[in-house]
Amino acid sequence: MNSSLSLTLDAFYTDTKVTFDSTLKNDQFYLNEQLQDELATQKVSRFLDLVREKAAISTSAIIHSTNHVPTAAGLASSASGLAALAGASSQACDLNLTPTELSRLARRGSGSASRSIFGGFVEWQMGDSDETSYAVPVDDANWDLAMLIVVVNKHEKAVSSRVGMKRTVETSPFYPGWLETTPLDLAEMKQAIQEHDFQKVGEITERNGLKMHGTMLGANPPFSYWESDSIKAMQLVRELRHAGLQCYFTMDAGPNVKVLCKKSELSLVKARFSQLFKEEQLISAGVGPGIRLL
Ligand code: ATP
């Protein structure tokens, strides 16, 4: 429905290994060393079916995946996990896909995974098919940028991104407003990135994030991912800004708050957050690279 932009982070990633094995009767999926139930395995199998079709094989696989990111907590585990699964599974059957082809494949598993194939700032182009909708790198983001992630709650969220998005698209009267204005935000953002204009990048990040959360409040039934600590974190960002530190917040579909700041000011920002949040709730991240074959 709309194009979108992400910043790949080095602190959150997934290691995935896929082995096709003709002695297996079914796919076996281990996530963080735990054998997964039928439902979770089915999701992965459906994705592997796409890869099997491309490779013209019907062999089952054993998948070992480790998320260095909390799963299903609004910290983009599906983006990281499905990008890794696309890379590992296509490589395991020698498909030798280009990064663009990989992005198209990853999108079939999770839209946001199309972006996580690449490092830095990445745009996922809107569209309704593999021909039109895939991600393209925008900028390596190799300038004074960092992110502090405030983990308010790392448990699985009650409303998954997929369910929440569907409900918002179908019922929120604010959704058309989002669709109308997001292309303008994106165009302005790409300009600001090109100019390395941190303040502009931050301002667009914050207002676009809040606008997305606004659409959910208009859904029927309405829902919100915010918790009281999310609001506390947002408020602190505003206070820090007032005190002269350049930082801006954004939130994905979850209660956790991401603070975009300058790499050179990250330790100062973190020190202020340490006064309100526990050490284990604060994760520092830099700009991350794209997918890598280990
Ligand atoms: P958000 O997209 O809002 O940032 P999230 O990605 O953590 O949050 P969901 O969009 O609900 O949460 O997606 C979580 C789902 O992604 C999991 O239930 C699982 O199906 C899939 N997933 C997560 N990690 C992996 C992985 N390593 N391998 C395969 N699938 C994964």
TrEMBL record:
**Family membership:** Belongs to the diphosphomevalonate decarboxylase family.
Which processes are annotated in GO (biological process)? isopentenyl diphosphate biosynthetic process, mevalonate pathway
Q: What is this protein called?
A: diphosphomevalonate decarboxylase
Q: Show the GO cellular component annotation of the record.
A: cytosol
Checking NCBIfam families in the record gives:
mevDPdecarb
Q: Which residues form the Mvd1 C-terminal domain?
A: 147-281
For the protein in the UniProt heading, the enzyme class is: lyase
Q: Gene3D superfamilies from the xrefs?
A: 3.30.230.10, GHMP kinase, C-terminal domain
Question: What EC numbers are recorded for this enzyme?
Answer: 4.1.1.33
